[in-house]
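User: quick one, sequence for these tokens?
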């Protein structure tokens, strides 16, 4: 947190240094990023990524889309527009928030995007198949994704029984847990644990963590072995198709 002196923000543990929530999904020949928040550029530099095939969006909040402009580096390297997958509503937000991209004036250096609509049905980016899972972030529909034996849900505090069926059977589940205290649009730690126990993945990782949750190591000690806090640069080996 900017300007915060709390013991999490002042922690020497690198696992307490959290950039905005995003994941990189990689197969042998494909790299996809789910969400490009304000830290996208920093994350891409850190991972030394030379090729990006697509950006997939969960929802339009600024902490998930603000870094989209920086795909222009990949436009330049790859000499093509970036494939962007988003729901119709999120596409409208992209047009609004990045109006200059769509102004029709081909100012050199503006990002080039090729928008694809996520309809709710599974879709493929090269050899990676993504099945959207619709969850609610207070009243805002947000997309989670099931990819093989892995499910990724960020920014939720409600999942319908029908959508839970899409997650069930996942070996790995990444789920948001903001803090211990009640929050209007995010699962609390307790709510996330209850949902994980219901969905029964082999291993669950908590993401979209606030500094209010506590230090990585201390929170992990309170958690069962099959539920742990995620951290920046955590790698999970996933397999199979949905
Ligand atoms: Zn703090
Ligand atoms: Zn968020």
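Assistant:
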């Amino acid at each position: 947190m900017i300007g915060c002196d709390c013991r999490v923000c002042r922690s020497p543990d690198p696992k307490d240094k959290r950039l905005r929530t995003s994941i990189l999904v990689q197969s042998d020949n494909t790299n996809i990023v789910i969400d490009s928040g304000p830290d996208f550029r920093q994350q891409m530099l850190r991972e030394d990524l030379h090729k990006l095939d697509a950006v997939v969006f969960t929802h339009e909040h600024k902490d998930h889309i603000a870094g989209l402009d920086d795909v222009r580096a990949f436009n330049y390297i790859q000499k093509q527009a970036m494939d962007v997958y988003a729901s119709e509503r999120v596409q409208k937000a992209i047009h609004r928030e990045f109006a200059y991209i769509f102004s029709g004036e081909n100012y050199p250096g503006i990002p080039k995007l090729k928008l694809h609509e996520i309809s709710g049905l599974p879709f493929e980016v090269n050899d990676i198949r993504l099945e959207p899972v619709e969850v609610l972030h207070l009243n805002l529909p947000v997309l989670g994704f099931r990819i093989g034996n892995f499910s990724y849900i960020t920014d939720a505090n409600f999942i319908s029984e029908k959508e839970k069926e899409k997650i069930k059977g996942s070996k790995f589940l990444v789920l948001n847990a903001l803090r211990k205290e009640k929050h209007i649009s995010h699962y609390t730690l307790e709510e996330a644990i209850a949902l994980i126990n219901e969905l029964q993945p082999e291993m669950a990782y908590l993401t979209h963590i606030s500094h209010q949750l506590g230090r990585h190591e201390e929170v992990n000690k309170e958690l069962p072995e099959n539920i742990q806090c995620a951290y920046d640069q955590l790698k999970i080996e996933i397999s199979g198709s949905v």
